[in-house]
Amino acid sequence: MIGAVSAVGIAAAGAFAHGTYHRNSPVFGRALGRLPLPRDGVRIAALTFDDGPNPEATPRILDALAASGTVATFFLLGRHVERWPALAARVAAEGHVIGNHGWHHRKLHTQSPASVRTDLELGTAAIVGATGAQPRVFRAPHGFRAPWVSRIARSLGQRTIGWSLGVWDSARPGVGAIVTRTVNGTRPGSIVLLHDGDGYDAAGDRTQTAAAVPLIIAELVARSYSLVGVPAA
Ligand SMILES: [Zn+2]
């Protein structure tokens, strides 16, 4: 028989695991997992790209976005911004929302508050240095958070963003699969997680995602979606 005390302990452990592992969990501070829907009924969705910039994929994705007049959100990784500052500057110059993804791409739920703060500050500094833009949104690597992660992001003026649709494009399932999963999974208000970079390999191959993006945009526009950046407030 499970006593009341241990039942409470189990419930607390469950809440802790949910807060750590679920990217939109409110347990450790609110993360935006869906876009607020406009009252006028316009179908909006947000394409978000993590782990860039990447020398092969990011320019192709930017070209596709520009060709269709589409705005997206890029959660840039500090390490990669330092390596390819001109690419980061191009993302900002073309009017996309710039987000902080930290510096190292460590799983932040395993890190102390001091180390999380350092990681987020280094990521922010790299972005500001390369783009001149102050990031107002933040996404944790893998969505993993400890109780202090969103609080630290907020202290840097950055709103924590989760996602409502991940299509596992980083596993490189083929261009067709990335397009189909994205288009079939998108609903009004969806925040779609895609990857223009690799959080661990600076030159990681994201060419499938890059090839999928123009097809995704065309399909979503055909379904009357307006693609928007994620809101900072
Ligand atoms: Zn990442």
3D architecture notes:
- The structure is a single chain.
- With 233 residues, the chain is α/β, with parallel strands linked by helices.
- The chain has a single domain (4-227), classed as Glycoside hydrolase/deacetylase (TIM Barrel, Alpha-Beta Barrel), CATH 3.20.20.370.
- 42% of the residues lie in helices and 13% in strands.
- It contains eight helices and eight strands, in the order αβαβααβαβαββαβαβ.
- Strands 1, 2, 3, 4, 5, 6, 7 and 8 form an eight-stranded parallel beta sheet that branches.
- β4, α6 (149-155) and β5 (159-160) form a beta-alpha-beta unit.
- Mean pLDDT is 91; it is low at 1-11.
- Zinc ion binds at residues 50-51, 101, 105, 141, 199.
Strand elements, count: 8
* End-to-end distance: 47 Å
Count of all domains: 1
What is the N-to-C order of secondary-structure elements (H for helix, E for strand)?
Answer: HEHEHHEHEHEEHEHE
CATH superfamily: Glycoside hydrolase/deacetylase
Oligomer: single chain
Q: What is the strand content?
A: 5-15%
Instruction: Give the CA-based shape.
Output: globular
CATH class, named: Alpha Beta
Alpha-beta content class: alpha/beta
Helical segment tally? 8
Low-confidence stretches are 1-11
Radius of gyration over all CA atoms, rounded: 18 Å
- Assign the CATH topology: TIM Barrel
